[in-house]
Design brief:
It is a single chain. By secondary structure, the chain is α/β, with parallel strands linked by helices. The strands form two sheets. Strands 3, 4, 5, 6, 7, 8, 9, 10 and 11 form a nine-stranded mixed sheet that branches. The chain has a two-stranded antiparallel sheet with strand order 1-2. It is globular.
């Protein structure tokens, strides 16, 4: 495939209908069903795809008896077609919100700790000046949030950039680390144990983030560092509420951040175990795409987050 100029999409006459066809083919993997989904005839869809492949000089989909499968070239176009169509839909939502007298929409992804403290404070402050701003908050782990940011489903995120993602695509503004603590129910057999050891804790059931999550990696590393076999009974879940429900009803132990524990763990129901080892996960921060311009609403929310972070650091320094 020859090197394409910056205006290649004009030269090959790429149309919105092509993007819609790529998305439909990715979902249906069958030309007839994709054409039906778009209200086209199969010959028209076949001609639309064939003409574009001819202008590009490459095949985009492999034809076989059961349908079509995108090859490497096709995968690139399919992925960007999804992103561009989502952006167009997002643009329509913003225009509709402005026309209705609102201030637009913002979709933010975040890991748990800033969701319960920093982000909620920022949203409350922004809504004083922009009461019509519609904010959607998606809570998840970094490995799930970063792909959604790259696909255009999030305006920005409060998270980390895991290894394996292209750092040059992002602007990362560090906020801080998350301190980890271990939580059990009030009345747990370990609450009266002193000194408390990892061997003591490993004998009980645990509820932790799935393998590969940063907090899980830190907990696993703690046991490995001390030469202690990890707990034999672990429930894997990314949902802190599920973990706390298990903790509340049994002798299960969980790991969470101190900010989350301070908000969700009522002292009459939960206890933080006094393990001496200090544990934290690598710093998280504001993450945005380097080549993407934020909407006015998203920019206002990010500015407010920066102000809150700066104020927090000033108080800690004083």
């Amino acid at each position: 495939m020859r090197i394409l100029d910056d205006d290649w999409f004009l030269r090959v006459r790429l149309k919105l209908r092509h993007l819609q066809l790529f998305q439909a083919l990715d979902e249906q993997r069958n030309l007839h069903r994709a054409a039906e989904a778009l209200g086209m005839s199969q010959p028209a869809a076949s001609k639309l795809l064939g003409d574009l492949e001819a202008r590009l000089g490459v095949r985009l989909f492999e034809r076989h008896a059961r349908g079509l499968t995108p090859n490497w070239y096709g995968e690139v176009l399919v992925r960007h077609a999804h992103s561009m169509l989502f952006e167009l839909q997002h643009t329509g939502n913003e225009l509709a919100a402005l026309r209705a007298g609102n201030a637009g929409t913002v979709t933010v992804g975040t890991v748990m700790a800033p969701a319960v403290t920093l982000l909620t404070s920022a949203i409350e402050r922004v809504h004083r000046d922009r009461p019509g701003l519609k904010v959607s908050v998606e809570v998840g782990v970094s490995k799930a949030l970063i792909p959604r940011l790259l696909e255009g489903e999030l305006d920005f995120a409060i998270t980390r950039v895991p290894a394996g993602f292209p750092m040059e695509r992002f602007v990362f503004e560090e906020i801080g680390e998350e301190d980890i603590c271990f939580v059990c129910r009030e009345g747990h057999p370990l609450t009266g144990r002193s000194p408390l050891t990892l061997e003591d804790m490993a004998a009980y059931p645990w509820s932790l983030q799935p393998p590969g999550a940063l907090m899980r990696q830190r907990v696993d590393s703690l046991f490995l560092h001390h030469g202690v076999s990890p707990p034999a009974r672990i429930v894997d879940t990314p949902d802190v509420l599920v973990s706390l429900a298990l903790v509340d009803k049994s002798d299960t132990i969980t790991a969470t951040t101190r900010e989350v524990a301070g908000l969700l763990c009522a002292p009459q129901r939960f206890r933080i175990l006094p393990l001496q080892d200090a544990l934290s996960v690598q710093p998280y921060g504001l993450v945005s795409l380097r080549d993407q311009r934020l909407s006015p609403g998203a920019a206002a929310l990010m500015t407010t987050l920066r102000e809150l972070v700066a104020h927090q650091r000033y108080r800690e320094a004083g």
